[in-house]
Specification:
The protein is 26% helix and 24% strand. It has 254 residues and is of the alpha/beta class. It has a single domain, classed as 3-Layer(aba) Sandwich (Rossmann fold).
C-alpha cells in the first residue's frame, strides 16, 4: 500500500474544504482491500489490487491514470454495477461484498451517474429525460416530476431548452442535461466517468464547474474518473492509479 494510505499523516486540507479523515465507516465511500479480476484460469487478469480509498461527505475526488489502470472498474464496483470479488466496499452505508442484487439495485437508485456519452433518449425532451430519474420515487406524480425536472434544468442553465429533443442541443448542452438528470433525485453520491471526454475545452470546463458548484451547495460527494488535465482544479483531492493500484494521493491546492 502506498505511503499516502499508510502511517504518514496527510497534509491538512485547505480551509473550507471537506475533510477526508475521520473514523472508518463515517464516509459515503469506504473501500478496503478491493481486488478484482476478469477471466478465469490462465486468462485471469487482475485489474484492481488491494485498493483502499475513502471519500468524505461533500468531497470531490478525481481518479486519474492511464487507460487500463482500473479506474472505471473501480467506479462500477462503487456504483454497484458489478459484483464484488474481494475486499470491502461500504457505499452510502451499504456493504457491497455479499450484497443481494435487490440491495445493489436499491443502492443504484441513490447514486447519480454521469458518463462520457450523455445516454439521453432521443425521442424524449430534455425535461422528460431528467424526469425519468424520478420515476422510482413513489408518490411523486408525473406533473411534479416534470416540474422538478424543469427546475433542475434551469439550475444548469437550460431553462429555455427544457422542451427540446437531444438532437436540437449542442454537445455541452446535452451533457448539462445528463448532469441535471444525475442530480434531480438528490443522490447521496455522484459517480462520473470521463464526463468531458467528448466536449471541447470551454464546454468541458463549464460542465464540470457547474457540477462542482451544484454538488457543493447540496453537500454531495463526487468521484470522477478523468484523463482531462484541464479540469483538475475542481478537485479537493486527486488520486492517481496505475496497474490496478493507487500510487499517489494529492490534496488540491488552495
Amino acid at each position: 500500500m502506498d505511503a499516502a494510505m499508510g502511517g504518514n499523516s496527510a497534509p491538512p486540507m485547505p480551509p473550507g474544504r471537506p475533510q477526508p479523515g475521520g473514523a472508518v465507516g463515517d464516509g459515503p465511500v469506504e473501500l478496503r482491500g478491493i481486488t478484482f479480476a476478469y477471466g478465469e484460469g490462465e486468462l485471469r487478469r487482475a485489474v484492481l489490487r488491494d485498493v483502499d480509498l475513502r471519500v468524505a461527505a461533500g468531497e470531490i475526488v478525481l481518479l486519474t491514470g492511464p487507460s487500463g489502470s482500473g479506474k472505471t472498474t473501480l467506479l462500477t464496483l462503487i456504483g454497484a454495477l458489478r459484483g464484488m470479488q474481494e475486499g470491502s466496499a461500504r457505499v452510502l452505508g451499504q456493504e457491497l461484498m455479499g450484497a443481494r442484487e435487490s440491495q445493489r439495485v436499491a443502492l443504484r437508485g441513490r447514486i447519480g451517474f454521469i458518463f462520457q456519452s450523455h445516454n439521453l433518449l432521443g425521442f424524449l425532451t430534455a425535461r422528460q429525460n431528467v424526469a425519468m430519474s424520478l420515476e422510482l420515487h413513489a408518490g411523486l406524480e408525473e406533473a411534479a416530476r416534470l416540474a422538478r425536472a424543469a427546475e433542475m434544468l434551469a439550475a444548469v442553465g437550460l431553462a429555455d431548452h427544457v422542451d427540446k429533443l437531444p438532437a436540437k442541443l449542442s454537445g455541452g448542452q446535452r451533457q448539462r442535461v445528463a448532469v441535471a438528470r444525475a442530480l434531480v433525485a438528490e443522490p447521496g453520491l455522484i459517480l462520473a466517468d470521463e464526463p468531458t471526454a467528448a466536449l471541447d475545452r470551454v464546454s468541458g470546463q463549464e460542465v464540470v464547474h457547474m457540477l462542482r458548484d451544484l454538488a457543493r451547495r447540496r453537500g454531495t460527494p463526487i468521484l470522477l474518473v478523468t484523463h482531462d488535465p484541464r479540469i483538475l482544479d475542481i478537485a479537493d483531492r486527486i488520486v492517481a492509479m496505475e496497474d490496478g493500484r493507487i500510487i499517489e494521493m494529492q490534496e488540491a491546492r488552495a
